[in-house]
Amino acid sequence: MQDSHHTFPSLLLSPDVAISGDADDPLSQRSYPEPAHPYRSAFVRDTGRILHAKAFRRLAGKTQVFTRRGAESDHSRSRLTHTLEVAQIARTVAATLGLNSTLAEALALVHDIGHPPFGHAGEKALDASLQMHGLGFDHNLHALRIVTSFEERYAAFRGLNLTLAVREGIIKHSHDYSAATHPELSEYFLDRLPPLEAQLIDLADEIAYLAADLEDGLAAGILDLQLVLDQVPFFSDFYARARSEFPAAATQLLSNEAVKQMLNSLVTDLMRETVRQVRASGAATLEDIRHAPRRMAQLSESLEAQRADTKKFLYANLYLSPALEPEHIHAEEVVQTLFSAWTEKPELLPFDHQARVAEEGAPRAVADYIAGMTDAYIEQAWLAYVAAQNS
Known about the structure:
Layout: H1 4-7, H2 42-51, H3 54-58, H4 79-97, H5 101-110, H6 119-131, H7 139-150, H8 164-172, H9 196-220, H10 225-231, H11 233-245, H12 251-281, H13 286-290, H14 301-319, H15 325-344, H16 351-360, H17 362-371, H18 375-390
Helix pairs in contact: 2-5, 4-5, 4-9, 4-12, 5-8, 5-9, 6-15, 6-17, 7-8, 9-12, 9-14, 10-11, 11-12, 15-17, 15-18, 16-17
């Protein structure tokens, strides 16, 4: 959105609530000091490093809702295309509010980099497997491990050496961690709220997948249009307006119009309500945002209710639908079987992952290996394992 903050001056926040991005800002610093780039800011460089990371490219092969195995269409979102849609929303919101839009974009691009294959079904199965060893899987914490250690692109250091602001946002955009349970995260200001640039990522994510999953579910035929019209007033109101404005348009185009207007109304409401919350609180600086009693990036009460109702509908009729249940069962079987097999015999892991067994134990090393896989890669490993068992 070009020059959006000039178009809507009423939505501009005080510049002091934003992260400056100045070279001497502590939030612009890296674990391994590097000389400043002659024409690229610290957060622009972070965005480039994320885009060029192998883990980011692998998002193209990871499930959002529909696996490649069971997808009805090549047009359904992958984890990568979802990420790009979140980045577009985050960049627009941040720019309109006068926040640091480059940082918001970097945080959006990295927000799902820690997800394992097979979407939430894969994450649930991996977490259940680790819990049998007294551990657990958290995709935000795994994302931090990816960018600080697993990515190997630079001779001077392991990981991507991202700025403190991006690393803080990775772990805190959607969850608040306790210093008592996560002392290893002490450098990330666990006693304070994240900046607004990080706070808005969680809702940009919610808005993006709400609209996209509704659209993909209708396109795949899993969601029935009449059922959506009957049970999702947020959608049906916009659909009725579209039908009134375009009476000769095809049903698919009317659905597209309704989804587009849902998306627009949620994004606009997020901007207006966040501004209202900040101004009502009297917050005028970043430290005011950090020490506020609650997060200020919010939807209004009415739009939050609409969002929650729509999400509830999607859970009942899409995410947990009988049509997707076979894919979820398959994901659980693949992840848990390979996890058990490799945990019992870690010598079957690739050499670089075997080296981590001594450092962190077989369960965590195996989970890290699985989490990095695409849907197609873990399927190949699964078929090879089954073939070996049957030979």
